[in-house]
Amino acid sequence: MAAPEPIDLHHQGVERLVGCYLLDTDDGPALFDCGPSTTIPALKAGLDGAGLKLADIRHLLLSHIHLDHAGAAGSLVREHPKLVVHVSSIGAPHVVDPERLERSARRLYGDAFDTLWGELAPVPEENVRVVGDSVLGLACFPTPGHASHHVSYLDRDGTLYAGDAAGVRVQPGRSVMPPTPPPEFDLDTWQATLDEIERREPERLALIHFGVADDPVRHLAELRLELYDWAEFVQGGATEEEFIAYCRTELEDAGEDVAHYDLAMPLWQSYRGIVRWAEKQEAA
Asked: Which of 28, 24, 71, 21 is nearest to 47 (CA)?
């Protein structure tokens, strides 16, 4: 079976930044994640390239509710009222009523919110399904660490639709980076998630940022080490400027496109998420 290919959503007009995946399920075509509302035209163009329209998609499988993954869900359901949205029990209330999520995101992004994400529309409760252990023939399991409401889906062909649980790796690059934004990053929880992913032995990792990694053993091992390294560096007293410089140097030494990684996963956000986690660790 051919490996899946992402639909490039050209977020901020940039290739290979945010994607989503079209997959076949036991109940017809589905999307894994959908990007923000600002990328709906690119999503429709990608579907058109596959010979499909939005109305042909029966299901939307969300990894989690961060706006780069799920921001368009309500807008898509408004246009296609039969679309069923699958999400974790923790995330479900926030797609039905995204007011709190939007308020938090506007504090973080300020005036850039509308340009980056566009409308954050509610999903009617009757369109929402809380995921269990199996969704439309795919195994589904919690993968927190990046976010408490994160889940991943393992297809029978060995593809793990990983969301952010397997980190950021902009193909064809090889560097794996952990997105650790506030407020929910937790090192030990993420390491346990990696244990769970490795136990399931996926053959490939479908990443939203960006592309399919066909070397999951090496990829996950690098992500595990990077998580420990970043946490230790920040706990050791690194400033935001020192952390960003450290990460940029690491990417440069690996021959990666530093600016591209920083767009896919803003390093200042990763620093602040680790700081918040470290402060909670110290308080405990």
From this structure: 21
